[in-house]
Write a structure and sequence with these properties.
Layout: E1 2-9, H1 15-28, H2 33-53, E2 62-70, E3 73-80, H3 107-115, E4 118-124, E5 127-135, E6 140-147, E7 150-159, H4 164-176, E8 181-185, E9 189-192, H5 194-207, E10 213-217, H6 221-229, E11 238-239, H7 242-249
C-alpha cells in the first residue's frame, strides 16, 4: 500500500498545487492516464466546493487530501473542518431539460460522483471526510526488479488497450528518472495487442537518443508471433532467458 497526505489552505489558488500533488502520485504509482484524469477532476470539484461553500467565516482553514493506492484501487480522501455537508445526498441535476430550465449549479459534485466508482461521507470530530474510490483495470500486474543496473519489468496477464497506460506510465517515469536499460520479461504475459506494442515502441524511441535500450525476454509463442507479425523483431532483440537479456545490457 502506498499513501500520500498533503495539507492545503482553503484558497482556490491551491488548485494548482493540488494538481501537481495528484500528478506526482499518479506518476509514482504508474496509474493509467484516465485514472489520473478522473482523480484530478474529482479532487478539483470537491475541493472547490469546500472552499466556496464550506466555511461560515473568512478565516484560514486547512483541507487535508489523502491518496492511497492499494489492491486494485485508488482512494481519494478530502477532509475539512467546515459546516456539515454530505455530497452523497446531493440530488442528481436534471440534464435532459431545455436550456432555460437547466440549473446553473450542482455539476461539480455530479461530475465527481460519475468519474469515481464510489463516494462515501462521514462526519467525525466536527470534520467532514469525503472518500472516493477508483478501481484499477484488472488483467495485468507488473513486478519490477533491478538486476545489475538493469530495470526488469515482469508483466503478468493481458497487456491491451484497457490497461496499457500502466506500463506506459511505468516506462515513462523510469526514463524521466534516469533509467536507460530495460528488460521486458514476458514469461507470464499471455496476451498483447497493438496498444501494448505501441507503448514499447514509444519507450524505445525515447531511449534511442539517450543511448538507452529496451529488450524482450522469454516470450510465449503467441506473443512472439504477434511481435514478428508487427515487424518488431527487428526493433527489439528477443532473448530466451532473463539472465541473457540482463547480461546483454550490462
Amino acid at each position: 500500500m502506498s499513501e500520500a497526505s498533503t495539507t492545503f489552505a482553503n484558497d482556490l489558488v491551491e488548485l494548482e498545487r493540488l494538481g501537481r500533488v495528484i500528478d506526482e502520485f499518479a506518476r509514482r504509482e504508474a496509474l493509467p492516464p484516465q485514472v489520473a484524469f478522473d482523480l484530478q477532476l474529482a479532487a478539483n470539484e470537491i475541493f472547490t466546493n469546500i472552499v466556496q461553500h464550506g466555511f461560515a467565516d473568512n478565516g484560514r482553514h486547512e483541507i487535508v487530501v489523502r491518496l492511497v493506492a492499494d489492491a486494485g484501487e485508488v482512494a481519494l480522501e478530502i477532509e475539512d473542518d467546515g459546516r456539515p455537508f454530505d455530497p452523497t445526498n446531493v440530488p442528481t441535476p436534471r440534464l435532459d431539460v431545455p436550456l432555460a430550465e437547466r440549473a446553473v449549479g450542482g455539476l461539480g459534485v455530479h461530475l465527481a460522483r460519475r468519474v469515481t466508482d464510489a463516494m462515501e461521507y462521514r462526519r467525525n470530530a466536527e470534520r467532514n471526510i469525503v472518500r472516493m474510490r477508483k478501481r484499477l483495470a484488472k488483467g495485468m500486474e507488473i513486478t519490477e526488479v533491478r538486476r545489475e543496473g538493469v530495470v526488469v519489468l515482469r508483466p503478468r496477464g493481458r497487456l491491451d488497450a484497457s490497461n496499457v497506460g500502466t506500463l506506459a506510465a511505468r516506462l515513462r517515469g523510469a526514463i524521466e528518472a534516469g533509467e536507460r536499460r530495460f528488460v521486458l520479461e514476458a514469461a507470464q504475459l499471455a496476451y498483447v495487442d497493438s496498444a501494448g506494442l505501441q507503448a514499447l515502441l514509444v519507450a524505445a524511441k525515447a531511449l534511442e537518443p539517450l543511448a538507452g535500450r529496451i529488450v524482450l525476454a522469454t516470450l510465449q509463442e503467441p506473443v512472439r508471433r504477434i511481435v514478428e507479425i508487427a515487424g518488431l523483431s527487428s526493433v527489439f532483440t528477443v532473448f530466451s532467458t532473463e539472465s541473457d537479456a540482463v547480461a546483454a545490457l550490462r
